[in-house]
Amino acid sequence: MTDVVNLLTVFMVVRADSHEAAARLFEGHPHMAIFPCDGVEVMPVLGDPA
């Protein structure tokens, strides 16, 4: 085992028709200018999407 650093400070769940559509939701999003981050990681939610 080794120590790791997770820089995750905020997360949100969005619903979109595709991975690409989810990523496009963040283009020009005001939070990208407010919070000190340089990217968004888009990941699928596993399990029942209910």
Could you please describe the fold and organization of this structure?
The relative contact order is 0.19. Helices cover 20% and strands 0% of the residues.
Order of helices and strands: HH
Largest sheet: none
Distance between the termini: 35 Å
Supply the number of helical segments.
Answer: 2
Structural class: mainly alpha
- What radius of gyration results from the CA coordinates? 13 Å
Identify the overall geometry: flat
Helix content: 10-25%
Mean residue pLDDT: 78
**Strands, count:** 0
Content of β-strand: under 5%
Low-confidence stretches: none
Task: Please tag this protein with its features.
flat, mainly alpha, about 50 residues, 2 helices, single chain, about 0% strand
Chart the SSEs and their pairings.
Layout lengths: L18 H6 L6 H4 L16
Question: Could you provide a short overview of the structure?
Answer:
By secondary structure, the chain is mainly α.
